[in-house]
Write a structure and sequence with these properties.
The structure holds 2 protein chains of 2 kinds. By secondary structure, chain A is of the alpha/beta class. Chain A has 26 helices and 33 strands. The chains are: A alpha/beta, B alpha+beta. At the A-B interface, loops of A face strand 3 of B.
Chain lengths: 840, 189
């Protein structure tokens, strides 16, 4: 790999250029500034040279050669604009149009169609084919709830098939037939049960794959767009959201822009319609006589002023959603700490603040950003504690794409089967919540059974056999992993949200990192987060134990769980919850509701009337990501701009203005007013952000990798974090299945439930178990089953997965009809459940 | 300039020659055929086919709407007076499963340039021969699809360029001049 780079000098249209040997003629020509049209070529897909649009003339060769699969050779002389080439292009287009439906006025792609552009530019403007056009089918057919297909427009470029197999890894599309009767579709045109991410739609140069929700709603030239960042998971995909007449109609990715390039997942591509939902809150609400009544902003703010005294201190608590922008989060913690004098702050209802603090330390978030592309440069990548394919689908695409193009090993440790397994060198199925044992076992195996100095005390008495038994894995697999890690010079660990659900693994993560580092390896750790601005929320100091930039705070406050307990005891009177749906997301729903109802004042700022908002005294309508400006920091630590597309609905305000308005009630100088000015203040307050450059936004790159390291946050100089050891969690003795939870592929938290399209993808709640378990219980996928825990039982439909660990049941945390948090009880061991078939 | 000319002028004055000449023109018009259209009471001008009046949305021979809501007319429109919102309908309402949910034109903005006709790939939109667009309520300046889909009183096949007998109908909310296309006459100008 580290040999001398051989250069080749070639002549393109008489211009002499020197490029790296093995460069494709197409890339070389494009670099030299010559345009070559293509349909089937895409930088990150395998070249197949099928569309023949990129034919060029190479001197000395009789036939024209496809430039997208022909590498340059030293001394080659290439012509891209000779009459032969030009007429070949025109003829190619004539052939493509021979059977093309030419129903541009009806086609949704009309106006942004590559075939239209190409024919306009290179094409023959009349065809000589008088025969009747061949038709695949008369009517468009739906391939999935979001994809509709018209094969008559196909140009057989097979980009859809390749993106599905190579990037998404779903492998559900293929080519039926041969020649001009080849049709790229699902297996015999069956209805797809795939990731529904619509990447096939995005790469399709013509109107062959189309979005069903977008179908016949508008024309591309009617849309006004804003380049922004996806509000769902922590991957931080760049996308363009577009509206017509104030209704958010679609979101799309752009080739070569952002770390995701042209890919998005189902949530990002189809889930943004929540912004135009009719259920949005449009006016402030005040509880009057038991019910929430519409009120004016003056009344709502007056109500708050009347009830919350300034400097209320410990009696007040604040929870802000990790979907707010950095600017809003910063102002929120400033409001709580400076105006109300309260240290009680949290950004999540799901985890203990000690766990998040430890996780930040263990994954080295305070040491600055780590790019996912840097991680994928490593010799070995370990994915642990994350169901990457469901929680961060686009990170999964990046990992798969790069894994398939270079020699490296990918190790996946997870209790459940996931799509990325097919790319894994080694996959390890461990018992749920046993990441700690897995990591310890790996660490011991790496050091041949003896703990390294870094892990000395912690692992002194540990025996690899015990750890393996507790993790439910085989010794062979662990040793194989250790071998791979030992053979690697550089290692990247992608650590996910399971560490926060089962925090006893956090110190072990830190230990393995140190152990590998001490044996002279380069180690990178990247957290895989499931909320768009979770990292930003921590870095803005929305946490009880640290301030902006992970700096120390005067006195540590309570986290979400602590606040609820204090409220239940009567020690906490007031809460300001911005965006978070605590009642729905906090484990142990009953207790949460009880605690929230005991509050003297609950102020909720949200865009929908969430479960928490229904309990509030004052509800302030905020804005969705499409209605404000600001920055999100993704899981890598990359700060990216989100842009405003629409005005907030009705009397709703930007969240920044809402927080500022509350602050101004007490201190008229509370501010700053503009997001940009807040960012300036953040740069001063948090050193990590001092050098963050947002200039890379809108920058295109042809290489399809975002190499903007200057966009990553720096290390924190003032970091004062500590890792807490958690005692190992216990599980209930009864019940066949260990119940686990997380995000569903089509949902993220509760707010994706407001998207009509995503609801259509998966309306009923699903419980997922392994195929083996299902077989032994005589159940099959699709059956209605009863899931019975100690505190709650529910009827769900069953989904089986082939390679999952046995004895694990998974229910996503997103369904409002089956709130999985009802299975959990505060202070009790992890629940186990039984699954039985429902017979009617 | 001789005396003869002076005498001639004098004779003309005595005999009122110029007066008679002028009067003969006036009297001539009095007895000749009138070129004034007795519009709106008795007659109405039916323009030629090339005339560009109120928009009409056409249907094909099976009664299906030709408009596929491709929005090219609204794109081509220099005054942005056409609004099209498409929708899906495969009940056979249109020639394709894409039909217009909304197709409206703001006649106050429209300059009747005919670009929309030119842009239309299915010949759905044509500028018809209706030119009586005045009304007493400004809302009627925006004409909706439903209204435009009704065939105009002058069929496409009718040659035009004639004056038709007409009746003037006055109602409370509107006035209308109804032409009788069977009773027309060419009028030379």
């Amino acid at each position: 790999m580290h040999g001398v780079i051989i250069m080749a000098t070639v002549k393109i249209n008489g211009k002499e250029i020197t490029v790296q040997d093995n460069t494709l003629i197409l890339d070389a020509a494009r670099d030299a500034g010559f345009e070559i049209p293509t349909f089937c070529y895409q930088a990150d897909l395998m070249g197949i040279g099928s569309c023949r649009m990129c034919l060029v003339e190479i001197e000395g060769q009789k036939k024209l050669q496809p430039s997208c699969i022909t590498p340059v050779l030293h001394g080659m002389s290439i012509n891209t604009e000779t009459p032969t080439v030009i007429s070949a292009r025109a003829s190619m287009l004539e052939f493509l149009l021979a059977n093309h439906a030419l129903d541009c006025p009806v086609c949704d792609k009309g106006g942004e169609c590559e075939l239209q552009d190409m024919v306009y530019k290179y094409g023959p403007h009349k065809g000589r084919h008088a025969e009747k056009k061949f038709k695949f089918q008369e009517k468009d057919y739906a391939l999935s709830p979001v994809i509709i297909k018209n094969s008559n427009r196909c140009v057989q470029c097979q980009k859809c098939v390749r993106v599905c197999a190579e990037v998404v890894g779903a492998n559900v599309l293929g080519a039926l037939g041969r020649g001009d009767h080849q049709e790229e579709t699902s297996f015999f045109r069956h209805f797809l049960d795939c990731d529904q991410d619509g990447n096939c739609i995005e790469v399709c140069p013509v109107g062959c794959f189309m979005r069903l929700p977008y179908r016949y709603r508008t024309r591309p030239w009617d849309l006004k767009g804003a380049d922004t960042v996806c509000p769902y998971c922590g991957t931080g995909c760049r996308m363009v959201i577009e509206h017509r007449d104030g209704v958010l109609i679609r979101s799309k990715a752009q080739l070569g822009v952002g770390l995701n390039s042209e890919t998005l997942c189902a949530r990002g591509r189809f889930g943004c319609d929540f912004a135009s939902s009719t259920e949005r809150l449009k006016t402030p609400l005040i509880r009057r006589g038991g019910s929430l009544e519409p009120a004016s902003w003056e009344e709502a703010l007056g109500y708050i002023k009347e009830h919350i005294p300034v400097n209320i201190g410990n009696k007040m608590g604040g929870i802000a959603s990790p979907r707010l922008t950095n600017e809003e989060l910063y102002l929120f913690q400033k409001l709580l700490r400076d105006i109300f004098g309260s240290p009680n702050l949290d950004s999540t209802a799901r985890w203990e603040p000690e766990a998040t603090e430890g996780f930040i330390k263990a994954t080295g978030m305070d040491e600055g950003g780590v790019s996912v592309f840097d991680c994928m440069e490593s010799d070995s990548v370990l994915v642990i504690g994350s169901h990457l394919s469901d929680e961060n689908p686009v990170t999964d695409y990046i990992v798969r794409r790069i894994k398939n193009t270079r020699r490296m090993s990918l190790i996946i440790a997870s209790p459940r089967e996931m799509k990325l397994d097919s790319s894994a060198t080694i996959k390890l199925r461990h018992s749920p919540g046993r990441e700690a044992a897995v990591l310890d076992a790996i660490a011991l195996a790496v050091n041949a059974g003896k703990p390294s100095p870094a892990e000395g005390a912690a692992l002194k008495d540990a025996k690899i056999e015990d750890l393996i038994a507790s993790a439910g894995v085989t010794k062979g697999a662990v040793e194989q992993i250790a071998q791979r890690l030992l053979a690697a010079n550089s290692i990247a660990i992608i650590a996910g949200m399971e560490f926060l659900r089962h925090p006893e693994g956090i110190p072990e993560l830190g230990l393995l990192k140190e152990a590998l580092k001490s044996s002279g390896k380069k180690v990178l750790v990247m957290p895989a987060l499931d909320r768009a601005n979770q990292r930003g929320a921590w870095e803005m100091g929305v946490h009880p134990a640290f301030g902006p930039g992970y700096g120390p705070v005067k006195d540590k406050g309570l986290g979400c769980a602590g606040m609820l307990e204090a409220a239940n005891r009567g020690d906490l009177d007031m809460m300001y919850i911005a965006g978070a749906d605590v009642a729905a997301m906090h484990p142990d729903e009953e207790f949460t509701r009880k605690a929230l109802l005991k509050l003297k004042l609950l102020v909720v700022q949200d865009i929908f009337l969430s479960e928490t908002a229904k309990l509030a005294h004052v509800v302030l309508p905020g804005s969705s990501f499409a209605e404000k400006e600001g920055t999100f920091t993704n899981q890598e630590g990359r700060a990216q701009i989100i842009r405003k597309l629409l005005p907030p609905p009705g009397k709703a305000k930007r969240d920044l203005d809402v927080i500022r308005a509350v602050g101004e009630v007490y201190d008229p100088s509370f501010g700053p007013k503009m997001p940009v000015l807040v960012l300036d203040e953040i740069r001063n307050a948090a050193g990590m952000y001092a050098h963050v450059s947002l200039a890379f936004n809108n920058k295109r790159n042809t290489e399809n990798k975002l190499d903007n390291r200057h966009a990553l946050v720096q290390g924190s100089a003032t970091s004062a974090l500590s890792v807490t050891r958690f005692s190992a969690a216990t599980t209930e003795p009864e019940g066949r299945f260990h119940l686990t939870t997380g995000n569903h592929l089509f949902h993220s938290g509760r707010f994706s439930r407001r998207s009509g399209t995503l609801l259509g993808l998966l309306s009923a709640a699903v419980v997922e178990i392994s195929e083996k378990d299902a077989a032994s219980l005589n159940l099959k996928s699709g059956d209605k089953v009863k899931v019975k825990g100690r505190h709650y039982e529910a009827i769900l439909s069953l989904k089986t997965k082939k390679g999952s660990k046995e004895g694990v049941a998974f229910i996503a945390e997103n369904y409002d009809d089956v709130p999985v948090n009802r299975f959990f009880k505060k202070g009790e061991p992890a629940p186990r459940v039984d699954i039985t078939k429902v017979t009617y | 300039m001789g005396d003869g000319f002076k005498i001639f002028e004098l004779v003309k004055k005595v005999l009122f020659t110029d007066f008679v000449k002028g009067l003969s023109i006036t009297l001539g018009y009095n007895v000749s055929r009138s070129i004034t259209h007795r519009y709106p009471d008795e007659e109405k001008w039916i323009p030629y086919r090339r005339f560009r009046g109120l928009h009409t949305l056409n249907k094909d021979e099976h009664g299906r709407e030709l408009c596929v809501a491709c929005e090219l007319c609204s794109k081509a429109c220099p005054t942005q007076c056409i609004t099209v919102i498409p929708m899906e309908d495969d009940t056979g309402r249109g020639i394709a499963d894409r039909v217009a949910k909304v197709w409206k034109v703001d006649l106050v903005r429209c300059l009747f340039c005919g670009y929309c006709e030119d842009a239309c790939p299915t010949r759905a939109v044509r500028l018809g021969r209706e030119y009586e667009l005045a009304c007493i309520d400004s809302r009627c300046n925006v004409r909706q699809r439903e209204e435009l889909l009704h065939p105009q009183p002058t069929p496409e096949a009718f040659e035009g360029g004639v004056v038709a007998r007409a009746t003037f109908i006055r109602k409370k909310r509107s006035i209308k001049v109804k032409a009788d296309l069977m009773n027309t006459k060419k009028r030379s100008i």
